[in-house]
Amino acid sequence: MSNHDLAIIILAAGKGTRLKSRLAKVLHRAGGRTLVEQIVRACEPLKARETVVVVGHQAEQVSALVEPLGAVTVLQQPQNGTGHAMQVAKRAVGRAKFAVVLPGDAPLIRTETLKTMISAHRNGNAAATILSAVVADPSGYGRILRKSETAVAAIVEESQLTGDQREINEINSAIYCFTLEKLWPALAQVRPNNKHRELYLTDAIACLSSKGETILAHVVADAREVLGCNTRADLAEVDRVFREWKRSTLLEAGVTIQLPETVLIDPEVTAGVDTVIEPGVQLLGKTKMGARCTIRTGSVLTDATLGDDVTVEAHSLVAQSRLENSVTIGPFARLRIGTHVKSGARIGNFVETKKSTISEGAKVPHLTYLGDAKVGPKTNIGAGTITCNYDGFQKHPTHIGKGVFIGSDSVLVAPVRIGDGAYVAAGSTITENVPAHSLGIARGRQVNKPRWAARKRRELAAAEKPKKSSRRKTRKKSHRSVRRGK
Ligand code: UD1
Ligand code: MG
User: Fold this and answer.
1) The whole model's pTM is what?
2) Could you tell me which CATH class the domain 246-440 is placed in?
3) Ligand 1: which of 8, 11, 54 to mutate, most ligand atoms within 8 Å of CB?
């Protein structure tokens, strides 16, 4: 479908008073993105000649989000209603013949639905086509007043409903397609006849209808697509739907998700076939997982890249890090920014890493901190090993070669190098390089004192005895003195 004659207009200037927030409504997030971004992205594939976003509250932040996506912004100040927002948008619309208009707070809309609405509008030679929905609970929405099966007479806002109109359960999604040469004159006739003294875009519908123009209502198949985010409860519901859709996409692509409703997945996350995601997992940002990975309960992956056959044991955190094929990490591991674990390496429990490379087949099984470190292939890092990468002023690197054995509870004071095949004795504080194939030992030498403990016990026992007998004497004395006193 060619849409060179189409403009997209997104109304995103409102404050969102009902959210009770300092943040403008369209900057709130659902499904892992801000509301306004979700809508701009849904419109992108329509390839319209321009996308105009009407901004007002926190205009700078909103513009900074949508302009990189190719949209232009116009400022509506003050915000005198959706009709006024359209009048403000007019100057940016150029030579488009049609416009798809969307509110900034209904982010679940799908591109396919917009395409069918545009086709219905074009084929029906309509002045306006409203995307409507039939819902069980229409409260909070404007209602569609039909004059026949196929034609619309007006949209009545909830505050202006009278009598039987309250029973209408076909609602206005606030998503429309307009023929612009018909809309602009009708909009000019709209007056702020409501308690907020605002110009309502919805009032342009009655105006067009009274002129005998064709107004269509295109009923959306899945009413969830037009859910508006006016309250925090709406936001939670919309987020829930986004997350459900994302999980369904992965399930259909061959990913196992246990107790899916407990798993949170951002829109750009990908996973290969037969990957298993356990309950309570969060997969965020641009996280990418290969095939046959297992992500166990309570783990949070943010912008992580995983190869195939990777196991993330329970309660591990991975951020901006790369795990190659057949790596195992956790439970309770924390891989911070810039960690690169090469194939077959293993990171165990209570290990923290940052800007470090752990090479093929290396093992860091427990209780370790590696910062700004390089660990060679097949090296073993003992429990409790710490790289002291920060001297209070600067960060320094630690290089550990291949096939190295670092004994438990060692402290490697950076900058320092441990050569290939070297050993570091347990409990060492290493401040100087250890050459290849050597033993580095840096700790107090052990001295055993024979029979020291036995002697000590005897001494203590001897010191105890006189104390006991002197106490008995004092007691006797006091008895005598009492008798004398009688
Ligand atoms: C609107 C519709 C209602 C529809 C509902 C669907 C009107 C008058 N009513 O009501 O029929 O059922 O959406 O969700 O249009 N905005 C501006 N400038 C303004 C006012 C609003 O840009 O001066 C933007 C808001 O930022 C928001 C959108 O327009 O993104 C809709 O405004 P909102 O206040 O949410 O309208 P609703 O009461 O939901
Ligand atoms: Mg709304």
Assistant:
1) 0.91
2) mainly beta
3) 11
